[in-house]
Amino acid sequence: MILPIIAYGDAVLRKKAAEINPDYEGLQELINNMKETMHSASGIGLAAPQVGKSIRLFLVDTETALQHIREDDEKKETRFNDEEGIVRTFINARKVNINGIPWHYNEGCLSLPKIREDIVRPEEITLDYSDENFRPYRETFRGLAARVIQHEYDHIEGVLFVDYLKPLKKRLIKKKLDNISRGIVDVDYKMKFPSKNK
């Protein structure tokens, strides 16, 4: 089932998400719905807060994105030439370390449609996490996978990619952000906007 994406301005996007255990009710259905939702919106990552659940769960799928990047001659993203895509579910992720040379990349977010900005992030992240069967891992990711994981990890910490922008840049996009929170944005996927009474 395709779920509505929670729009910028909703308080759930600003909460630090809670850990869950294997008996979290409806977990497998939620993961399946999030996968369907992410793919239907052409996303490469989706965190549970973006579908209204303040839990430490996010999905990443960089396989299709890498294929598109390599096919797009204009981008010339040689950085990703040797990278293999990942399709992964992350539960109760905890950042162990971030490392490597910081690099710029143009990011967007399904909760902030029509906004894309260059964001600087380290090239590598190491996480402790569990998969959807609650098998534990400690793993290091690089390249696009590390970028998307850092973006989605921020979601479960209540952080959005626009928080990294300098004050002037934030002022320049303030009207766009306000419009998103009011539901004044044209998107081709289902969204849920903050209540006007809040």
Q: Could you explain how this protein is built, in words?
A:
The chain has 198 residues and is of the alpha+beta class. 27% of the residues lie in helices and 25% in strands. It has helices at 27-40, 63-71, 143-156, 167-182, and strands at 5-6, 45-47, 57-61, 87-99, 103-107, 117-121, 124-130, 136-142, 191-192. A 5-stranded antiparallel β-sheet has the order 2-3-4-7-8, sandwiched between helices. A two-stranded parallel ribbon has the order 1-9. A two-stranded antiparallel ribbon has the order 5-6. The two termini are 28 Å apart. The mean pLDDT is 93.
Describe the secondary structure blueprint for this structure:
Layout: E1 5-6, H1 27-40, E2 45-47, E3 57-61, H2 63-71, E4 87-99, E5 103-107, E6 117-121, E7 124-130, E8 136-142, H3 143-156, H4 167-182, E9 191-192
Parallel strand pairs: 1-9
Antiparallel strand pairs: 2-3, 3-4, 4-7, 5-6, 7-8
